[in-house]
Amino acid sequence: MSSGTTPPRTPVTSPGRRHSRVRPGRRGWAAWWRADDGSVAAEVTIAAPFLVMLLVFVGVVIHRGVDARIRIDDAAHQAARAASIERTPTAATAAAQSTAASALSSAGVTCASLSVSTSTGGLRPGGTVSVTVSCAVDFGDALILGVPGGKTLSATSVEPVDLWRSTLNTGSQT
């Protein structure tokens, strides 16, 4: 027998201790590598539920931010429309504030701080009313676990003042 054609002998071990002694060289490493057959399937089986939970967690947080953004855009639009149909700049500012707050409240968006700024331009017929709504959204109630932090979202909407609207009667004919 020549040493180049016969495989090296593996040590005899007890049945429970297969591949306990790794021989140096190429064949020894191959035996060690084969001893891990099937371990990847077990690792994936254990890790998969945690990966799925992480993806669901991230998805819920992203959805929460996108939903809040859409609701704030809608509140800005409603506030600008409410301000554009008022007769005085003071009433327009008050209408924009109350409309934005009620729109966000009815949509289920809770703001840590709500800011509504209104630019009326004197409410001249043919002019525009611009309303910016800023809301600090807290992500803490997104899941049972809670998410630290939040984000300030803002939206601006511009509405035209009706060109053919009537004006306040000041006692003189116009």
From TrEMBL:
Top-level lineage group: Bacteria
Biased composition, class Polar residues, residue ranges: 1-13
Record InterPro entries: TadE-like_dom
Keyword Amino-acid biosynthesis (UniProt): no
A Pfam entry, by short name: TadE
Biased composition (Basic residues): 16-25
Keywords: Membrane, Transmembrane, Transmembrane helix
Signal peptide positions (record): none
Region (Disordered): 1-25
Parts of the chain that traverse the membrane: 40-62
UniProt keyword annotation of Flavoprotein present: no
Domain TadE-like: 38-81
Protein name (record): Pilus assembly protein TadE
Species assigned in the record: Lentzea guizhouensis
